[in-house]
Prior knowledge:
single chain; 220 residues; alpha/beta; Rossmann fold; 9-stranded mixed sheet; disordered N terminus
Amino acid sequence: xxxxxxxxxxxxxxxxxxxxxxxxxxxxxxxxxxxxxxxxxxxxxxxxxxxxxxxxxxxxxxxxxxxxxxxxxxxxxxxxxxxxxxxxxxxxxxxxxxxxxxxxxxxxxxxxxxxxxxxxxxxxxxxxxxxxxxxxxxxxxxxxxxxxxxxxxxxxxxxxxxxxxxxxxxxxxxxxxxxxxxxxxxxxxxxxxxxxxxxxxxxxxxxxxxxxxxxxxxxx
Length: 220
């Protein structure tokens, strides 16, 4: 990397940190999803990864199977895609279905249709941000970005210039179509995850995997 590029990169990072531009947009109760009017601010989520949710009194152990709907790409005016192409949206939606299905299969058995003991799970990709080229990796080592990312890693928050993924999860009883639970979430890699900073989609892919683990934990 030339000295001029290093200087320019460092200057961009300093501006980002100084202006708070590295802080990210949080998910909202997206107006176009079916559960929007039922979502409320989460009371027990200190991480900020699930800012809104809807809960009912349900024993998830009653359910031994699941049906996973095709992942929808949110088209509402309040979507939070930051310079993400249609190809990237489609790629992330496919990856999301694969990752969530794999994780859910470890908890349930798949159900081909309506089943008295099955959940129907609807996923909607509502937002995404790609890694900022060069800066996402450079910020892990720069004298300005390094300490910032160290603090963010300890707090479990986003690193500088790192991508993320936002989505809505809606969980129904497959036989009655009753909404049992719903939430909106945002996921991203640990601020010191260097591998997730390489390639535009890498952080979003890690976020999707974390989101799948999050759903399994939610259902347990």
